[in-house]
Amino acid sequence: MMTLNKTFKWFDCNRREFLVGTAALGTSLLLGDSLKPKADSLRVGEEVTIPTCCHMCGGGTGVIATVRDGVVSKLEPNVDNPIGVCNTSTGYYENSKYGAAMCPRGLSAIMSLYDPDRIKKPMLRTNPKKGISIDPEWQEISWEEALEIIQDKLKKLLDENRPEALITFSENSLFTDVQRDFCHLFGTPNVSFHTNICSVTRKSAAKSVLGVEEPLGDYQHCKFMLLFGWNPLSAVKWAHLPQIILNGKQNGSKLVVIDPRFSETAAKADKWLPILPGTDGALALALAHVIVKENLHNERFINDWTEGFKEYKEFLTDKTPEWAEKICGIPSDEIQILAREFASNQPAIADVWVGPGQQSNGFNASRAIFLLNVLVGNVDQPGGMMLTEEFKLGNSPIQTSQSKTKRFDGLENFPFGHRSGVYVEAIRHLYHQSGPYPLEVAFFTMSNPVLSLPNSNIVVDALKKLNFIVVIDNYISETALLADLVLPGTIYMERSGLVTRGTNWKYVALRQPVVEPLFGQLPEVDIFIELANRLELKDIQGKVAFKDISYEDYMDYRLQKSDAGITLAELKSFSGAVWRSNEETQFEKYKLRNNKFHFSISTLDLGNVDKFPVFRQRKWMPDSNYPFYLISWKHISHTHSRTQNNPYLSELKNQNFLYINPETAKSLSFNDGDRIRVNSPYGRVTATLRITPGIHPKVLGTEWGFGHKGFGKYAKDKGFSVNHLNGLLSDEITGQALHKEICVNIEKL
Ligand SMILES: Nc1nc2c(c(=O)[nH]1)N[C@H]1C(S)=C(S)[C@@H](COP(=O)(O)OP(=O)(O)OC[C@H]3O[C@@H](n4cnc5c(=O)[nH]c(N)nc54)[C@H](O)[C@@H]3O)O[C@H]1N2
Ligand SMILES: Nc1nc2c(c(=O)[nH]1)N[C@H]1C(S)=C(S)[C@@H](COP(=O)(O)OP(=O)(O)OC[C@H]3O[C@@H](n4cnc5c(=O)[nH]c(N)nc54)[C@H](O)[C@@H]3O)O[C@H]1N2
Ligand SMILES: [Mo]
């Protein structure tokens, strides 16, 4: 196991003493020793090991925390949890003998837990003037005072009979269940979470073609991987991903990566094809054209299980490699070779994530890419694109009814919109005051839209129009800088939750607190439960809904009614606090559906969308004023805008750069390390230039998440925020925020 042992000082946040401890930091993804914790926890002297689930990103990788004298001293992978091992049951049993994986962000989480820059007390703004460079002039207040203030604000909305003036935003796995219940009980339809600024194009496209929202390839057992704008070796969502892709390669699979830049995944590929941003749809259609024209498709599968093929074939007639070359910049002969290789190396998987997904045409591009799997019939079989069936938790124990009022963000206007809402449109309506009614109070939990949404200037101005903003965060984020009241959040090691997703067979894992909240904070869920009780919010039977229900009861209820049918106590007692189904990964599940399930090539249930995955150019194209595409991506050492104050991660990477191709740099007489200004129609930032052949000559790019004005001493004023340059764009079909669609120019400072 490759680890770097560091000695550092624990800042004990309960103001006891400084303690000296050690922690293991992974310098890359690593395989931990096989861990077989006994039921619940194991005591060795004063040391306790407790299984839980990471939440440094949404992936929820299994973790074993060692707690020494009440201080978390070590985090290691939990081999009982499939997320760090493999996404199929066969692969899980094959791989688990070698241990499980965590990523650098997960391994550094202790430093986030004990970060002295964390917010410790509720903070009330005293300066009514708002802006991210304006001092809010915080006043520390007690939890009781803070809850009373919020209660008053919410009570006023109830008294005035306009509960819809409340909107909530949160991360997409943290307590969305209770947040939704709270909003329903309160009477507002405006419950939203971050999926629509994340990967709704992929989810919606997958649903429309394959019938499931989150298909996941059996990479370990395939023979060809074709990845469009997905960098799983660095943007590690589930810690098994780098492992199964590299194991697949070791088993003889080819890997081809389509990306405007030489990503970490491209670095492991047999071929990297640099593409012009936003043109993946054209490439995928041309690949389909060649496959169909040369009769390389799987006719039997298509006849038995799909509809619309004949018309699709016609639609593809003019989507030739030569047509696509002009659009995407990849030579037509390369396209032909790729199509033949893909079709003849079965099982072959084509997959896509947010590279194309966060640009116009992302929905149709993703559809065209998923359809490649359908054309070769590689769906839901070993080595195929799997029809992932999610583990189902039981319904909430709280009986609510959904508000009949129209949503503020106009979600209903998006034919493939997602229940998480449309952040971009909520901001637009707020900014222009064009919503169906005024909004007054907003909650942001584990969300930093001022940095994470396109066009930060507009986001700031929009948020300034709200009457009262509550932010629940561990830092004074840029969004918190605009808040009226900030409540200290918890780090996952201080709270509970149930985690499932990211595998092709069913499992559920327990996130359990390994230490008490360090500053006596209420965990995020409990804030909402407490407010519901203070406001005496009633369920449909007229009973105060959360009166006798703790979050533990709530989880217990949902677990008992889940696919696992177990109690919370049982889950806690299982090895690694994980329940895994005895039923192994099921293949060809569509065959069990009595021929009723078709893969949809043409027809879509909802009107208003193109019958076939047409290609349309992006709204933002280079012109003489803004000649370069600008894209952004995730760095392995950071999660979005949330980890930049972690000292270990900041040591690995503490700022972003603007990457440029040597040809382009030469033509503009720029040198490596030059300080430059980047201008877009919406904003300007200062950046440091890095010259690399690993980026398309017409494209500039950067890691996103940097450029903090708030946060703490490690994060503040390091690098630049790319979202200051982006335009406030959402995809017309899904409502997805388009973070990778802008053009810029650059000048020397
Ligand atoms: N380390 C780390 N891992 C993470 C996260 C994190 O913040 N940090 N976040 C998690 C989340 S929420 C998500 S949604 C996933 C996302 O995972 P990914 O989809 O891999 O995310 P990105 O890095 O944004 O984009 C992937 C690639 O798309 C490329 N790209 C940009 N534009 C285009 C284009 O037009 N066409 C093509 N073909 N490629 C393009 C970028 O250069 C980048 O290499 O990652 C998850 N994992
Ligand atoms: N330009 C550009 N923009 C992008 C992307 C991109 O690739 N390029 N990627 C997009 C994607 S895929 C996504 S998913 C979104 C993510 O965007 P967001 O969902 O807004 O996530 P973050 O930016 O990480 O902000 C999370 C906030 O939560 C706080 N936080 C972290 N952990 C906790 C916790 O445990 N409890 C509490 N209460 N608070 C916590 C952090 O301090 C931070 O302020 O960004 C999107 N924005
Ligand atoms: Mo995301």
From TrEMBL:
Indicate whether DNA-binding appears among the record's keywords.
Answer: no
Which molecular function GO terms apply here? Answer: 4 iron, 4 sulfur cluster binding; metal ion binding; molybdopterin cofactor binding; oxidoreductase activity
Instruction: Return the SMART domains for the record.
Output: Molybdop_Fe4S4
Query: Which Pfam families does this one have?
Result: Molybdopterin, Molydop_binding
User: InterPro entries, from UniProt?
Assistant: Asp_de-COase-like_dom_sf, MoPterin_dinucl-bd_dom, Mopterin_OxRdtase, Mopterin_OxRdtase_4Fe-4S_dom, Prok_Mopterin_Oxidored, TAT_signal
The domain of life for this entry's organism is Bacteria
**Family per similarity comment:** Belongs to the prokaryotic molybdopterin-containing oxidoreductase family.
- Return the protein name: Anaerobic dehydrogenases, typically selenocysteine-containing
Could you tell me which species this protein originates from?
Mesobacillus selenatarsenatis (strain DSM 18680 / JCM 14380 / FERM P-15431 / SF-1)
